[in-house]
Structures are given as structure tokens and as C-alpha cells.
Amino acid sequence: MNWYAYTACFFAGVFLANVVPHFVHGISGDRFPTPFAHPPGKGLSSPTVNVVWALFNLVVGYILFRVGKVSGGDDLALVIFFAGIVAMSTMLSVQFAKKQALQPSEQKPGNVPHP
Which pTM does this prediction carry? Predict the structure, then answer.
């Protein structure tokens, strides 16, 4: 396979990993950072913006998945795809942990802490 197909595999993993937090927050009705917030990536976007951003990531990730032929039986393509997932997931976990540490936690009315 050509180098650009492996690059597509990596970024397919990146985009598909990015679907999860935006989609979950969006369909849960929670505000969450997106590139469209003010400031970008730090402010909070509406749940609808998050769902749309998640669906955009899903479409781009799927296209890259097909271009990279991740499911074509090439083990290296699959490893690179999962490396993209690991890279994005790790980066997001660090970024959002820092963001939560800087902001006081918000309690929603009716939320009861679990023991």
C-alpha cells in the first residue's frame, strides 16, 4: 500500500475517536467544547453543534477508513488505524482533564452524587 493510504488509516482512527465525546455529550444535552466555540476548543458549544460536529467526524473518518483500506486484510493498516485512535484518545483525555481541573465542577439540579 502507498504511504498516503497509511496516513488515511491513521487519520481515520483520529476522526472516528473524536466522534465519541462529541456525540455522547450532544445527545445527552450537554454543552461541550468544539472548534466552533469561543475561544475555539475551549469554550462550550451547544449540544446540537456537538452532534453535527460528531456526524461530520464520522463521515470524514469513514471516508478515510475506506481510502486507507483498513479492513482490506493489511495488518499494518489496522495497527496504524488503532494508533490514530490511541493518539486522539490520549490527547483528548489529557486536554479535557486539564480543562476540568481549571473549572469548578457544575452540579445540575437533581443530580445526586453516587457513593
Answer: 0.79
